[in-house]
Amino acid sequence: MALQKLRKEETLAMRKRLIGQSCRLFYSDDPVKIVRARGQYLFDENHQRYLDCISNVHHVGHCHPSITKAAAAQMDLLNTNSRFLHDNIVLYADRLAATLPEKLCVFYFVNSGSEANDLALRLARQHTQHEDVIVLDHAYHGHLMSLIDISPYKFRKLAGQKEWVHVAPLPDTYRGIYRESHPNPGQAYADSVKDIIEEVHKKGRKICAFFAESLPSVGGQIILPQGYSAQVAEYVHSAGGVYVADEVQTGFGRVGSHFWAFQLQGEGFCPDIVTLGKPMGNGHPLACVATTVEIAGAFTANGVEYFNTFGGNPVSCAIGLAVLDVIEEEDLRGNAARVGAHLKDLLTKLQKRHQIIGDVRGVGLFVGVELVKDRGQRTPATETAALVVKRLKEEDRICVSTDGPWESVLKFKPPMCFSMEDAELVVQCIDRILKDVEANDLKPEKEEI
């Protein structure tokens, strides 16, 4: 039986009636109804094509034929839970291990980044027997209660900060406390974590973990200063804690030069636990925690079985293996490096022409453009950022979104097949819109995108 086709107005009316209103749509004033997709392109019900600069989940491209073929073939053969012995889960774990430092060699498969981060927190606590967690300001690690508690981006709007949670300054060298002019911002920001550890110890409490995205995303597409992670890890280890790297947004070659974003911090740095998610299944719910033999052993020693009904099932692992194949066969890491560098170069040139562009930052296909009302004060240009997003969608059929504490950063995390021509088109369109804003001194209306 074919699925019923609804007019856009009917779909929207039914969504408003049936789906919780806290589940928000992109472009809420005039949502785009997407009915199919391929590569870096989305198509609406009228067959209009949109360039997708948002969907980092669809890592190797929407509806990649190799992924859909692998999924259908395995689904037609077998899908069951991981308590049955099967090749796919061990073959997939082996392939993942080959991309990671040698000590990260034990894997737990789950279904989402939130599940992965929740499990990472459990592993850290079981191993250290400590409770307190240090996180970065503006961080977001997932929607479970345990993760809302360690996500300042969320808990500040809800119940507030728990006694066992400690917030370190976001290592933002553009608008943070230590900026680009500082001789060693990595050390300075790391020392702020050391100060927090000392304050925690004065209260008679102990550090369980430092928990951070390898490249803070919700914080505004932040690139951590060199030396930061290794120094923080040293301080945390000295306090008896572990370092958890959240790679849910940034893993699987998005940064181009490396397979994992934490590797940007140098060969001397290796987290104790790494969480993987979003791009892992190219849209299929698949996520994972990678850790050491020692930490996994402590988790086993508690005598309680860990079982995840769908985690590591044969279909999910077949899809995960296919994603790794496509990344390699199509040189998507290389593409991310080349196209990302071109995009960043074009945006940096645009910055010279438009005073409203305060900063351009990023690596590979993880790029942010921070808009400001004035470069001296670096006042966030939140409303203009929203206007740019709105006009790109309406005039150019380009999907871009904003991030950062003030929603003033245009963020680019497109599918990894994003091309040079796509980068050039996006920058040309942003240039035109900013010229128009400046020429007409437009006053964008406040509205939610």
Could you characterize what this model shows?
This protein has about 450 residues and is an alpha/beta fold. The chain folds into 2 domains: about 10-65 and about 330-440, Aspartate Aminotransferase, domain 1 (Alpha-Beta Complex), CATH 3.90.1150.10; about 65-330, Type I PLP-dependent aspartate aminotransferase-like (Major domain) (Aspartate Aminotransferase, domain 2, 3-Layer(aba) Sandwich), CATH 3.40.640.10. Helix content is about 40%, strand content about 15%. The protein has 13 helices and 15 strands. The chain has helices at about 10-20, 65-75, 85-100, 115-130, 145-150, 150-155, 185-200, 230-240, 295-300, 315-330, 330-355, 380-395, 420-440; strands at about 35-40, 40-45, 50, 105-110, 130-135, 165-170, 205-215, 240-245, 275, 285-290, 355-365, 365-370, 400, 400-405, 410. The strands form 3 sheets. Strands 4-10-9-8-7-5-6 form a 7-stranded mixed sheet, with helices on both faces. A hairpin with a 2-residue loop joins strand 1 (about 35-40) and strand 2 (about 40-45). Helix 4 (about 115-130) packs across helix 9. The longest helix is centred in the C-terminal third of the chain and has 22 residues, at about 330-355. The two termini are about 35 Å apart. One of its GO terms (molecular function) is transaminase activity. This is 5-phosphohydroxy-L-lysine phospho-lyase. Belongs to the class-III pyridoxal-phosphate-dependent aminotransferase family. Keywords: Lyase, Pyridoxal phosphate. One of its GO terms (cellular component) is mitochondrion.
